[in-house]
Amino acid sequence: MKRFLLFLPLLVAIIVGAVLFAGIGKDPTKLDSALVGKQVPAFSLKDLKNPESTLNESLFRGNITLLNVWGTWCPACRDEHEDLMWLAREKKVAIIGLNYKDNRDDALVWLDRLGDPYRTIIYDPKGTLGFDLGVYGAPETFVIDASGVVRYRHVGVVNGRVWEQVLLPVINDAREDG
Amino acid sequence: MLRIVCLFLAITASAMTFADVSAVYGFDSRSEEQRYQNLIAELRCPKCQNQNIADSNSPISKDMRNAVYQMMLDGASNEEIVDSLVGRFGEFVKYKPDLDSRTFMLWATPAIAVLVGLLVVAGVVARSRKAGIAAPALSKDEQARVDKMLAERNQSGNG
Q: What parts of chain A have a pLDDT lower than 50?
């Protein structure tokens, strides 16, 4: 018993070390979405590019899509735009945009100038769908499977590395299931 | 004079920062306003993670305060309001998470720490008691020597 007590500090140090080590490299600002495994929330919003047409959640049926939340006010969105262009062009990824708390004219100028990687863009000037999706900062990118269920949410910029290591595996899983 | 100016500035400036967060919404009763204040004080901002949505001026906190207010107007209970925000932003937004398998250690750790502390104290006390009984402070010979020395000292002191 006495001898065991001598090793107690070592034991405590090892346990604390293991717990702290597990936390290294985890970014506390990246939260798991509460919507993973749930349907995309119902919405009824205008199409950014065709103001007359109204979009709803059926937009996400039938195809695996990336839902990219962006706005012209968001510098990191500018940063990832080239990579989204690359994904749409080279990887043939179906990307749906959610233009979040922005104004239509600015958004159209941006797309005109930088190119348009989106199949469709939902225009959400008040951020209502963004709020229902739990968006807390653009850019955010959701992987949505063919039945409209949210599979994953990535907070931050999408680039080649994020695509290879994070998004593509999730999409492959969704393909196998569906 | 300078002191008075400083005091005046401090008071008015603190009122200004407060106004931005609180003065926007109107309530029918004081208790409703208190309920609102309590709710936004225990909801956490997902963007600025060390603040509640009452203190944070980030756009998302503004949206969340607005949602809380709207739901209150619609007659939602506190539980419904918190659940609706948790459904969107995750368990993270609650400063007091529910007790479940993931948060068990979070809730249990303080109790465990207290228990371990009590055990250690009890152990130390028990051991010292046992030692006290097993070995009296002085043996018979030692006690006799002490008595003798004290007696001698008293005599020399008197004499």
A: none
Task: Confirm or reject contact between B98 and chain A (CB < 8 A).
Answer: no
* Total length of chain B: 159
Report whether A143 contacts A167 (CB < 8 A): yes
| Chain A CA closest to residue B87 | A34
Query: What tokens were used for A118?
Result: 């989106």
Q: What is the CATH number of the domain that holds A170?
A: 3.40.30.10
Burial of A107: CB neighbours in 10 Å, binned 0-12, 13-18, 19+:
buried
DSSP for A92-114 reads ---EEEEEES--HHHHHHHHHHH
Strand partners, B141: none
| pLDDT for res B2 | 72
Terminal Cα-to-Cα distance of chain B (whole angstroms):
75
Nearest-neighbour CA in chain B from A90: distance (Å): 33
Q: Which B positions 38-57 lie with beta carbon below 8 A of chain A?
A: 46-47, 49
Nearest Cα residue to B102 out of B114, B111, B113, B90: B90
The total domain count for chain A is: 1
| Predicted pLDDT at A121 | 95
Has the ipTM of the complex gone over 0.90?
no
Structure tokens at B92: 């993270």
pLDDT tens-digit readout, B37-64: 999 999 998 888 788 888 888 888 989 9
Q: Which residues on B lie below 8 Å from A33 (Cβ)? A: 90
Q: Which of A53, A65, A67 is nearest to A138 (CA)?
A: A67
Candidate CATH numbers 1.10.8.640, 3.20.20.80, 1.10.10.60, 3.10.20.740; the one for domain B2-93 = 1.10.8.640
